[in-house]
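User: What would this chain look like folded?
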Amino acid sequence: MSTAGQRVLITGGGTGTGAAIARAFAAAGAEVVVAGRRPEPLAELAGASDAIRAIPADVTDEASVSALFDAAGPVDVVIANAGAADSAPFGRTTLAQWNAMIGVNLTGVFLTLRAGLNQMQGRGRLIAVASTAGLKGYGYAAPYAAAKHGVVGLIRSIAQEVARRPITANALCPGFLDTGMTDRSVDAIVGTTGRDAETARASLAAFNPQKRLIRPSEVAAAAMWLCAEGSEGINGQAIAIAGGEI
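Assistant: Here's the prediction, encoded as C-alpha coordinates.
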Protein backbone atom coordinates (compact mmCIF):
# COMPACT_ATOMS: atom_id res chain seq x y z
CA MET A 1 0.00 0.00 0.00
CA SER A 2 1.86 3.06 -1.24
CA THR A 3 0.97 6.42 0.27
CA ALA A 4 1.18 8.12 -3.12
CA GLY A 5 -2.30 8.81 -4.42
CA GLN A 6 -3.97 7.77 -1.17
CA ARG A 7 -6.39 10.03 0.65
CA VAL A 8 -5.43 10.44 4.32
CA LEU A 9 -7.68 12.04 6.93
CA ILE A 10 -6.08 13.35 10.12
CA THR A 11 -8.02 14.76 13.06
CA GLY A 12 -6.33 17.30 15.30
CA GLY A 13 -4.33 18.06 12.19
CA GLY A 14 -3.77 21.80 12.50
CA THR A 15 -0.82 21.86 14.90
CA GLY A 16 1.76 19.72 16.67
CA THR A 17 1.84 16.02 15.88
CA GLY A 18 -1.15 16.15 13.55
CA ALA A 19 0.46 18.85 11.42
CA ALA A 20 3.73 16.89 11.29
CA ILE A 21 1.86 13.80 10.12
CA ALA A 22 -0.01 15.83 7.51
CA ARG A 23 3.20 17.31 6.09
CA ALA A 24 4.86 13.89 5.95
CA PHE A 25 2.02 12.26 4.03
CA ALA A 26 1.68 15.24 1.70
CA ALA A 27 5.41 15.10 0.93
CA ALA A 28 5.00 11.40 0.08
CA GLY A 29 2.36 12.14 -2.53
CA ALA A 30 -0.84 11.58 -0.55
CA GLU A 31 -3.92 13.76 -0.65
CA VAL A 32 -4.35 14.92 2.93
CA VAL A 33 -7.46 16.15 4.73
CA VAL A 34 -6.87 17.79 8.11
CA ALA A 35 -9.66 18.39 10.59
CA GLY A 36 -9.93 20.22 13.89
CA ARG A 37 -12.00 22.66 15.88
CA ARG A 38 -9.84 25.72 15.20
CA PRO A 39 -10.07 26.83 11.56
CA GLU A 40 -7.12 29.24 11.66
CA PRO A 41 -4.25 26.74 12.08
CA LEU A 42 -5.98 24.36 9.67
CA ALA A 43 -6.16 27.06 7.02
CA GLU A 44 -2.54 28.05 7.59
CA LEU A 45 -1.37 24.46 7.14
CA ALA A 46 -3.50 23.90 4.05
CA GLY A 47 -2.37 27.20 2.57
CA ALA A 48 1.23 25.99 2.59
CA SER A 49 0.57 22.86 0.50
CA ASP A 50 -1.65 22.08 -2.48
CA ALA A 51 -1.85 18.51 -1.21
CA ILE A 52 -3.55 19.45 2.08
CA ARG A 53 -7.23 20.34 2.45
CA ALA A 54 -8.78 21.65 5.69
CA ILE A 55 -12.23 20.84 7.05
CA PRO A 56 -13.22 22.18 10.50
CA ALA A 57 -14.85 19.51 12.67
CA ASP A 58 -15.46 18.54 16.29
CA VAL A 59 -14.61 14.88 16.89
CA THR A 60 -16.78 14.74 20.01
CA ASP A 61 -19.90 15.49 17.96
CA GLU A 62 -21.33 12.59 15.93
CA ALA A 63 -23.01 14.81 13.34
CA SER A 64 -19.83 16.83 12.87
CA VAL A 65 -17.78 13.69 12.29
CA SER A 66 -20.32 12.40 9.78
CA ALA A 67 -20.24 15.72 7.93
CA LEU A 68 -16.43 15.62 7.94
CA PHE A 69 -16.31 12.28 6.13
CA ASP A 70 -19.02 13.36 3.70
CA ALA A 71 -16.97 16.43 2.81
CA ALA A 72 -13.66 14.54 2.64
CA GLY A 73 -14.85 11.83 0.29
CA PRO A 74 -13.61 8.22 0.41
CA VAL A 75 -10.43 7.91 2.45
CA ASP A 76 -7.80 5.18 2.56
CA VAL A 77 -6.08 6.12 5.83
CA VAL A 78 -7.75 7.52 8.95
CA ILE A 79 -5.56 8.88 11.73
CA ALA A 80 -7.44 9.76 14.92
CA ASN A 81 -4.99 12.21 16.43
CA ALA A 82 -7.22 14.81 18.09
CA GLY A 83 -6.70 14.94 21.83
CA ALA A 84 -6.33 17.08 24.91
CA ALA A 85 -4.68 16.76 28.32
CA ASP A 86 -5.58 17.97 31.78
CA SER A 87 -3.98 17.56 35.18
CA ALA A 88 -5.40 17.34 38.69
CA PRO A 89 -5.07 15.16 41.79
CA PHE A 90 -7.54 12.30 41.45
CA GLY A 91 -9.44 13.26 44.59
CA ARG A 92 -10.04 16.75 43.21
CA THR A 93 -10.84 15.71 39.64
CA THR A 94 -14.29 16.96 38.70
CA LEU A 95 -16.86 15.09 36.64
CA ALA A 96 -16.58 17.83 34.04
CA GLN A 97 -12.82 17.19 33.72
CA TRP A 98 -13.44 13.45 33.46
CA ASN A 99 -16.10 13.87 30.78
CA ALA A 100 -13.93 16.28 28.80
CA MET A 101 -10.97 13.89 28.74
CA ILE A 102 -13.10 10.87 27.83
CA GLY A 103 -14.99 12.90 25.23
CA VAL A 104 -12.10 14.07 23.09
CA ASN A 105 -9.55 11.32 23.80
CA LEU A 106 -11.78 8.25 23.61
CA THR A 107 -15.24 9.04 22.25
CA GLY A 108 -13.65 11.19 19.55
CA VAL A 109 -11.44 8.28 18.49
CA PHE A 110 -14.45 5.93 18.46
CA LEU A 111 -16.51 8.27 16.28
CA THR A 112 -13.61 8.96 13.91
CA LEU A 113 -12.54 5.35 13.40
CA ARG A 114 -16.10 4.07 13.13
CA ALA A 115 -16.92 6.57 10.40
CA GLY A 116 -13.63 5.84 8.67
CA LEU A 117 -14.10 2.07 8.72
CA ASN A 118 -17.68 2.24 7.48
CA GLN A 119 -16.65 4.00 4.28
CA MET A 120 -13.62 1.80 3.48
CA GLN A 121 -14.25 -0.44 0.48
CA GLY A 122 -10.80 -1.96 -0.05
CA ARG A 123 -7.41 -1.62 1.58
CA GLY A 124 -7.27 0.75 4.50
CA ARG A 125 -5.43 1.83 7.60
CA LEU A 126 -6.97 2.91 10.92
CA ILE A 127 -4.45 4.58 13.24
CA ALA A 128 -5.05 6.13 16.65
CA VAL A 129 -2.47 8.39 18.23
CA ALA A 130 -2.68 7.29 21.86
CA SER A 131 0.10 7.77 24.44
CA THR A 132 2.35 5.90 26.82
CA ALA A 133 -0.46 6.86 29.22
CA GLY A 134 -2.42 4.12 27.44
CA LEU A 135 0.20 1.58 28.53
CA LYS A 136 0.91 2.70 32.10
CA GLY A 137 -0.38 5.04 34.77
CA TYR A 138 0.65 8.64 35.39
CA GLY A 139 -0.12 10.50 38.59
CA TYR A 140 -2.37 13.56 38.34
CA ALA A 141 -3.68 12.45 34.92
CA ALA A 142 -6.14 9.66 35.74
CA PRO A 143 -8.91 10.64 33.27
CA TYR A 144 -6.38 11.11 30.46
CA ALA A 145 -4.72 7.78 31.19
CA ALA A 146 -8.09 6.04 31.43
CA ALA A 147 -9.09 7.43 28.04
CA LYS A 148 -5.83 6.41 26.40
CA HIS A 149 -6.07 2.91 27.90
CA GLY A 150 -9.53 2.82 26.34
CA VAL A 151 -8.07 3.75 22.96
CA VAL A 152 -5.64 0.84 23.12
CA GLY A 153 -8.46 -1.56 23.99
CA LEU A 154 -10.61 -0.13 21.21
CA ILE A 155 -7.84 -0.62 18.65
CA ARG A 156 -7.20 -4.20 19.74
CA SER A 157 -10.90 -4.99 19.41
CA ILE A 158 -11.24 -3.35 15.99
CA ALA A 159 -8.19 -5.27 14.80
CA GLN A 160 -9.94 -8.57 15.55
CA GLU A 161 -12.94 -7.53 13.46
CA VAL A 162 -10.97 -6.36 10.41
CA ALA A 163 -8.37 -9.13 10.43
CA ARG A 164 -9.94 -10.95 7.47
CA ARG A 165 -10.08 -7.74 5.43
CA PRO A 166 -7.20 -5.77 3.87
CA ILE A 167 -7.48 -3.25 6.72
CA THR A 168 -5.35 -2.87 9.82
CA ALA A 169 -5.92 -0.98 13.08
CA ASN A 170 -3.05 0.14 15.29
CA ALA A 171 -2.23 2.67 18.00
CA LEU A 172 0.87 4.83 18.25
CA CYS A 173 1.84 5.57 21.85
CA PRO A 174 4.36 8.40 22.08
CA GLY A 175 5.89 9.56 25.32
CA PHE A 176 6.01 13.24 26.19
CA LEU A 177 6.19 15.14 22.91
CA ASP A 178 7.91 18.36 21.98
CA THR A 179 4.59 20.07 21.21
CA GLY A 180 2.29 22.77 22.51
CA MET A 181 0.45 20.21 24.68
CA THR A 182 3.67 19.56 26.59
CA ASP A 183 4.28 23.30 26.84
CA ARG A 184 0.94 23.56 28.64
CA SER A 185 1.96 20.71 30.94
CA VAL A 186 5.15 22.60 31.72
CA ASP A 187 3.13 25.71 32.54
CA ALA A 188 0.95 23.65 34.90
CA ILE A 189 4.01 22.23 36.68
CA VAL A 190 5.48 25.71 37.05
CA GLY A 191 2.21 27.05 38.43
CA THR A 192 1.77 24.17 40.86
CA THR A 193 5.31 23.60 42.08
CA GLY A 194 7.06 26.92 41.53
CA ARG A 195 9.81 25.24 39.51
CA ASP A 196 11.27 27.13 36.59
CA ALA A 197 10.20 26.10 33.08
CA GLU A 198 13.52 24.49 32.19
CA THR A 199 13.43 22.25 35.26
CA ALA A 200 9.79 21.38 34.63
CA ARG A 201 10.51 20.43 31.02
CA ALA A 202 13.48 18.31 32.09
CA SER A 203 11.26 16.45 34.55
CA LEU A 204 9.00 15.39 31.68
CA ALA A 205 11.92 14.48 29.42
CA ALA A 206 13.27 12.31 32.25
CA PHE A 207 10.44 9.80 31.72
CA ASN A 208 12.23 8.88 28.46
CA PRO A 209 15.38 6.80 29.08
CA GLN A 210 16.96 8.82 26.26
CA LYS A 211 16.29 11.92 28.42
CA ARG A 212 14.54 13.87 25.69
CA LEU A 213 11.11 14.76 24.38
CA ILE A 214 9.82 12.83 21.38
CA ARG A 215 9.73 14.76 18.11
CA PRO A 216 6.39 14.89 16.23
CA SER A 217 8.29 13.82 13.12
CA GLU A 218 9.02 10.48 14.82
CA VAL A 219 5.31 9.81 15.24
CA ALA A 220 4.76 10.82 11.61
CA ALA A 221 7.43 8.35 10.48
CA ALA A 222 5.75 5.54 12.43
CA ALA A 223 2.38 6.36 10.86
CA MET A 224 3.98 6.30 7.42
CA TRP A 225 5.50 2.88 8.19
CA LEU A 226 2.09 1.47 9.14
CA CYS A 227 0.85 2.50 5.69
CA ALA A 228 3.84 1.22 3.72
CA GLU A 229 4.21 -2.04 1.82
CA GLY A 230 5.05 -4.88 4.17
CA SER A 231 2.99 -3.59 7.09
CA GLU A 232 0.03 -5.88 6.42
CA GLY A 233 0.80 -8.10 9.40
CA ILE A 234 0.97 -5.22 11.89
CA ASN A 235 -2.52 -5.23 13.36
CA GLY A 236 -3.90 -4.55 16.82
CA GLN A 237 -0.60 -3.20 18.13
CA ALA A 238 0.09 -0.40 20.63
CA ILE A 239 3.48 0.84 19.48
CA ALA A 240 5.44 2.85 22.04
CA ILE A 241 7.54 5.71 20.70
CA ALA A 242 9.22 6.60 23.95
CA GLY A 243 12.92 5.79 23.91
CA GLY A 244 12.41 2.61 25.92
CA GLU A 245 10.07 3.97 28.61
CA ILE A 246 7.63 1.06 28.28
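The chain has a mean pLDDT of 94. If you want, I can go into more detail on any region.
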